[in-house]
Amino acid sequence: MNLLKEFSLNDKCSYLKDKEQTTHYKVINDCSAETCQDLIERGFRRFGKMYFRPVCEDCQECQSIKIDVENFSFSKSQKRIMKKSAHFESYIQTPNLSQSHLDLFKKYHLHMKDKKEWTYSDTTPEHYYQSFVTGHNEFGYEVLYFDEDKLIGVDLIDILEDGISSIYFYYDPDYSQYSLGKLSLYNQIRYAKRSGKKWIYLGYYVEECPSLSYKSEYKPYVTLEGRPNEYEEFNWS
After folding, report:
1. What is the pTM of this model?
2. Distance of CA 163 to the CA centre of its chain
3. What's the average model confidence in pLDDT over 115-134?
């Protein structure tokens, strides 16, 4: 592991109003799949070369959560979503940057600004590259969703030894009736089942945050106990 930088920052909480958060960061160059796995299993998330997790002293609301793939069964409504979207094409490749990516990313976030009052700031090609393209090494991928030749969704994932770490998904709001966010997760689960992967790492579940509370709907799941560092054993229960 080539650790370039390690630090913590205090800032306004990203998930709960009127709270502060402390986030621990590691910037790692040429991270191996094994090291990425070790960090994800201990509650870290990855954006580019940046690995991070909340370490707030007085708050435990952010719970790392992962889906038990082997014991997950699709419901009738979930199967309907997959059937309804069967005409879309999808391709997996290493993360890339194009004008289509940037246009879709902007359209999605302007929509979420109006729908959920997300804070919006225009994303530069450099910022997108640092967040979603660099640092993928041999385990990072993007799944592109198309309606004929039109890019309508981008799903960023890490494919690890025992599972898939779901990083970020954005989509064309004109296709909201197809539940593309759910579809992307269902396809992750289907791929994991075919590949013998045990888990879908969903990041953080926060009960009082609508953007994250939905994750508890995907049962069975387990959550990480405490905040073990990379030298400590970890336990999901």
Report:
1. 0.95
2. 13
3. 88
